[in-house]
Amino acid sequence: MLHPEAVPANAQPAPAQPLVLDALPAEILEMPATALYQSLPGPCLIRLAGDDPRPLVVSVLQHGNEDSGWEAIRQLLKHRYQRQRLPRSLWLWIGNTQAARWRRRRLPDQPDFNRCWPYPGRPPATEQDRHEVGMFGQLVEMLRAAQPLAVIDAHNNSGLNPHYSAINRLDWRSYNLARRFADIVVYFTSPPGTMANACADFCPSLTLECGQAGQVHGTDHAMRFIDDCLQLPAVDAAPRPLGEGVVYHMMATVYVSPGVQFGFQPESHPISFVANLDHHNFRHLPAGSKLADIAVAGARCVLALDSHGHDITDDYFSFEHGELRTRREIIPSMLTLDERVISQDCLCYLMEVIDPFPQHAEPD
Ligand SMILES: [Zn+2]
Question: What is the whole-number distance in angstroms between the Cα of residue 184 and the centre of ligand 1?
Fold first, then answer.
């Protein structure tokens, strides 16, 4: 056991500074995400000057296997802005290049980059995430000082999901910016350690979900949206009719219970999830829907936690007669068939449709 007095007060190393560049490294636009580590061995902020100096911040590859954001930026800079000056400064944050090398969300010895950003009440950093927590904390202060037009953090998901953007605050600027990307908007407050959440108190911030990695329409959609934002003089703060917009509130995160083996082949594991589980994303799934066979009698094989970390599993799921079933209607998102993602992140989120601006009367 280590006695506290055995650790000198100044033993903590200073947090690593984020690498900041004011030009693109040579040949970087020729590199797929898997090759970026050759030029950028760690996270990097690249500040590219444009006509309007107030920057648009775009973050890519916080999860190394989610490359639509990088592909969108790469094509935008290579083709549209190679000879033409940017209409607005673009600050590009390139995240986990080491995980991208291996097409992994994160490497086994790394924390999840998009859980390492500051928020009030954050518990002390651990051995595993100290480096990133310190670095990202410094980066947030740099971004705050720059007063960005907006922060856009591009992601992919591993299951079948529509394109959508997620916001952490219900205000018109966040919502209006989100609707420029898609009709579907997800509002969430947990998990709190995301980049978009850390930046939401000084500018509109979006987590962009561009479908599955490697799909051209996800890259194209992100590219059009980023270009649209670069040309935007300001983010509209005026109330508008919601029209086709649907806002989901993320109510709970569902995990496979710790230590429980799971899979998708029938009767292969203590939990065997039904095939095509990810077809349920963004669908209203009625009470009684079967999600898995359970081989272990009485096992509470999944765990649903609300945004405060309270266990609300029994509100949503039953574990009777060897089956995992829904106890009430649910709207899941981010269900995936990728067992590694389920282990490293979660099984899914549960959502409900909300009226984001109940005080706002729709104009006739
Ligand atoms: Zn992601």
Answer: 17
Do 115 and 256 share a structural domain? no
318-334 pLDDT tens trace: 999 999 999 999 999 99
Asked whether residue 259 is domain-assigned, the answer is yes
Residue 85 Cα to ligand 1 middle (Å)? 30
What is the distance in A from the centroid of ligand 1 to the CA of 10? 35
Distance 118 CA to ligand 1 centre (A): 17
Answer yes or no: do 77 and 189 share one domain.
Answer: yes
Residue 361 domain-assigned?
no
Report CA(111)–ligand 1 centroid distance (Å): 13
Tell how far the Cα of 155 is from the centroid of ligand 1, in angstroms.
4
What is the distance in A from the centroid of ligand 1 to the CA of 157?
Answer: 6
Q: How many domains does the chain divide into? A: 2
Handedness of CA 351, 353, 357, 359 (dihedral sign): negative
Residue with tokens 């799921």: 317
User: Which DSSP symbol is given to 81?
Assistant: S
* 126 CA distance to ligand 1 middle (Å): 21
- With cut-offs at 50, 70 and 90, classify the pLDDT of residue 6: very low
Listing DSSP states for 79-123 in one string gives IISSSS-EEEEEEEEE--HHHHHTT-SS-TTS--GGG-S--TTPP
The domain containing residue 308 runs over which residues? 250-354
Same domain, 211 and 229: yes
**Residue 148 tokens, joined:** 């960005």
Per the domain annotation, does 140 fall within a domain?
A: yes
5 within some domain: no
Q: Kindly report the pTM of this predicted structure.
A: 0.90
